[in-house]
């Protein structure tokens, strides 16, 4: 029997038919290629399952966002007391230093002023009430001091800071006519501003 294209697409069991004595009829079909293809496809699917199945275990079904805020804050340590002792005629100077720590993204500005309501900017003797003739001066360096009745910037910076020095320089001029007295005092008030 002659093979045809349609025979190659089918699988049929061997066929035997009766005829003259000694005659044998067989039908042979070439369908082995189809079986091989099925086996290859099956193996490929099995391998895909081996690799894909573990990945499925890590598939996400949702997410959770964690949020939080950090509040802005600072710590400012004022410069300690600056004792001028016995002031002599002429210019008497001194200096001290404080420090600031803060987390404002744009940094801070520290200013200082004599904020009292009367005799603003002058040293006054506490016991006697005498006032010195010249205004007290403050600044961030020895060369930048100016009268303390106006707010003076001692420090300005950008970004968060940790234990950054805030210097205070002072100057008081004494004249020959200033009244001799004890306890001349002035109090400097500081303002810390978070830069916008």
Structural class: alpha+beta
Molecular shape: rod-shaped
Number of domains: 2
Report the CATH C-level class of the largest domain: Mainly Beta
Distance between the termini: 98 Å
Care to describe what's here?
By secondary structure, the chain is an alpha+beta fold. The chain folds into two domains: 5-56; 74-194, Immunoglobulin-like. Helix content is 15%, strand content 29%. It has helices spanning 5-8, 32-57; strands spanning 74-77, 90-102, 108-113, 124-125, 137-139, 146-147, 152-156, 161-174, 184-185, 189-194. A five-stranded antiparallel β-sheet has the order 1-2-8-5-6, with no helix packed on it. The chain has a three-stranded antiparallel β-sheet with strand order 7-3-10, with no helix packed on it. Strands 4-9 form a two-stranded antiparallel ribbon. Strand 5 (137-139) and strand 6 (146-147) form a beta hairpin. The protein is rod-shaped. Residues 5-19 and 21-29 have low confidence and may be disordered.
What are the salient characteristics of this protein?
196 residues, alpha+beta, Immunoglobulin-like, 5-stranded antiparallel β-sheet, 2 helices, 10 strands
What are the SSEs and their pairings?
Layout: H1 5-8, H2 32-57, E1 74-77, E2 90-102, E3 108-113, E4 124-125, E5 137-139, E6 146-147, E7 152-156, E8 161-174, E9 184-185, E10 189-194
Antiparallel strand pairs: 1-2, 2-8, 3-7, 3-10, 4-9, 5-6, 5-8
Tell me briefly what this model is:
The chain is an alpha+beta fold and 196 residues long. It contains 2 helices and 10 strands, in the order H-H-E-E-E-E-E-E-E-E-E-E. It is 15% helix and 29% strand.
């Amino acid at each position: 029997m002659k093979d045809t294209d349609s025979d190659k697409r089918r699988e049929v069991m061997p066929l035997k038919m009766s005829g003259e004595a000694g005659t044998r009829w067989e039908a042979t079909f070439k369908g082995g290629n189809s079986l091989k293809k099925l086996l290859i496809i099956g193996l490929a699917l099995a391998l895909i399952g081996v690799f894909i199945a573990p990945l499925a275990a890590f598939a996400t079904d949702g997410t959770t966002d964690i949020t939080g805020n950090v509040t802005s804050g600072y710590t400012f340590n004022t410069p300690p007391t600056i004792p001028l002792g016995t002031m002599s005629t002429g210019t008497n100077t001194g200096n001290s230093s404080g420090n600031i720590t803060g987390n404002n993204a744009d940094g801070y500005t520290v200013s200082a002023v004599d904020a009292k309501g009367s005799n603003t900017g002058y040293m006054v003797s506490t016991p006697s009430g005498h006032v010195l003739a010249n205004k007290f001066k403050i600044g961030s360096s020895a060369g930048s001091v100016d009268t303390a009745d106006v707010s003076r910037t001692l420090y300005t910076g950008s970004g968060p800071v940790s234990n950054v020095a805030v210097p205070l320089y002072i100057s008081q001029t004494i004249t020959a006519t200033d009244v001799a007295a004890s306890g001349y005092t002035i109090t400097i008030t500081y303002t810390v501003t978070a830069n916008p």
